[in-house]
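Complex 487.
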Amino acid sequence: MKLYNSLTHTKDDFVTHTPGKVTMYTCGPTVYHFAHIGNLRSYIMEDVLEKYLGYAGYDVTRAMNITDVGHLSSDGDTGEDKMLKGAKREHKTVMEIAQYYTDAFFEDCRKLNIKIPEIVVPATSYVDHFIKMIEKLIDTGYAYEAGGNIYFDTSKLKEYYVFNKQNQEDLAVGVREGVEEDSNKRNKCDFVLWFTKSKFEDQELKWDSPWGVGYPGWHIECSAISLDTLGEYLDLHCGGIDNAFPHHTNEIAQSEAYLGHPWCTHWFHVLHLNTNDGKMSKSKGEFLTVSLLEEKGYNPLIYRFFCLQSHYRKALVFSYDALDNAKVSYDKLTDKIAALKPGGDVSRDACKPYLDAFADAMDNDLNTAMAITVLYDIIKAKISDADKLWLYQTLDTVLGVGLLAAADKKREALAQEKAAAEAEAAAERAEAMKDPLIASIYAAIDERTAAKKAKNYARADEIRNELLARGVTLIDTPKGTTFKLEG
Ligand code: AMP
Ligand code: ZN
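Predicted structure with zinc ion bound:
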């Protein structure tokens, strides 16, 4: 598989430290509010990546943190802890907020068919690990204490800006517009590992540490959780593109300084979902959540389908028109699948070209848009319905858009519609039968139907002619025979 790597800026062959196995780390949500559908774009694409690696034969172990402390409003070391902001907004404790929005995140994942990684670690449960890691970074000269906080010393690294070499000045935390420079820092891109003399007097959660009571910075949590749960050689690290700097850059700095060797080989970044007005926001404009889409009548899997129709390395603009277009395509596809007849043998040979086309698309830097076109090719394919159904079921284990479930629902709805129409027709007939003339016509029609069934076509024609003589014209339809009365 070729997968774009933000470290090398090329589509690299995806190679793992241990053949056949993948260790995969995902930056989890900051649980101070609901996830917006932009956040969920990242988790959808990461989910498809994990599922495809499993489909391709890898044994994937995946871990994710839950950020419930230390993520400040700026992504760097300024602003308020987002968790505290959430708690104040809702007049609850930080832990109540964390629990509520962690559950809400998992519920969104369930609705979007996103598998929750087998290892999920809330940052607040790992503080002793962070402290141990910071102690070693101090011992080895990579971290220092200043003004009560512990900082990582970026000048000790051969290279700090690993992802974006050309834009070093723009990226430096200290030079961002409106961001105050922290005079404790030896270098402007140094970052906080542990806050003690906090500027936030009311920080709710604090822990004892060798440097005084305080709380961890955001970046250290992903390094420590990943190293502890997935080991010292990581194959794949994921997140939205905004995480590349400063978060992932700082994770690499800490982890490699701590380990003394290269850490993660492959970095997967999902480009942002934006709105027509620009950035997706939880505070300004319409707060786009999965629940809001549901309230507006959209099946959440339509949103997943919408995401898969675009490549993860392209920014994507959300609009209801675009979502409606995805819905039309999804409905067309699932209508066609609903019309397929289940049962019969599956020919693996007949299916192979479609599996190959799917793998070609996904092996080419997870080209889900191309993989979706294979779904349409299957509809037109000259293979059996059993083959088609098997292919949809198989490919949906990766794409997760619920193709067969949606088709089943449609089939059920159609069957219900048909039964209702038949019941209505039967009731109409029963009503009409109260008239002896109509009853005699129906009796003749039934006799003719029975004669046709017995291949007695002469008698059937006779009945038709007798009725015609009485001014009754028979009309044969696929649903049965009806009639027209003269005059
Ligand atoms: P957060 O809850 O802020 O820690 O973010 C959770 C995940 O969503 C991270 O991987 C972010 O990089 C990602 N993310 C944030 N905004 C967007 C967006 N508009 N589109 C796609 N991913 C995003
Ligand atoms: Zn992270």
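Residues 162 and 249 are 7 Å apart (CA to CA).
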